[in-house]
Amino acid sequence: MGIFRDRNFALSNVAVAAAGAAVPAVLVPLYFYLESVRAMSGADAGLVVAPMAILAMVCVPIIGIFGDLIHPRVIPSAGFALFAVTLMIFAMFMTPDSPVAVFLVGAGLVGTANAAIWPTLAAAAPPTTCRRTRQAPGPGRTTRSGSSTR
């Protein structure tokens, strides 16, 4: 467990755990809202959240370019802030009569936030010493898997 003495690796794992827990904590209630309150089918609820995946695929390469130019803490911090704003938007608009377009835009913002969080945390995580670099994948994957519902 000496690998966690590396500050970047330890902080990156804490951030990965937070993101891994936050994403399902937001999206699962959103699916329940869309299916129960809005009476959508599972397929329709999935289509409402589809912009998340589409924008994540589009934004990851673009954010990756900036990830090499900007300090590693800036982009994930912006991603977490955008994710928090999206959570507030979802909380305010989860009413029976709110427009579905709000959730489409919110899903797109979540996708953009995820594109800013995950790749840059993975780039910032490797330990600085060569010996510890070989040890990093195990705890990193365990943190990512254990913090989410995957």
Note down, in words, how this protein is organized:
With about 150 residues, the chain is mostly helical. About 80% of the residues lie in helices and about 0% in strands. It has helices spanning about 5-35, 40-65, 75-95, 100-125, 130-135, 135-145. The longest helix has about 30 residues, at about 5-35.
Strand content: under 5%
Q: Work out the helix count.
A: 6
Mean pLDDT value: 81
Largest sheet data: none
What letter string, H or E per element, gives the SSE order? HHHHHH
Which regions have little confidence, pLDDT < 50, spanning 5+ residues? none
Q: What percent of residues adopt helix (DSSP H or I)? A: over 70%
* End-to-end C-alpha gap: 24 Å
Beta strand count: 0
Cα radius of gyration in angstroms: 17 Å
Shape: elongated
Global structural class: mainly alpha
Question: What's the helix and strand layout?
Answer:
Layout: H1 7-37, H2 42-67, H3 74-93, H4 100-124, H5 130-133, H6 137-147
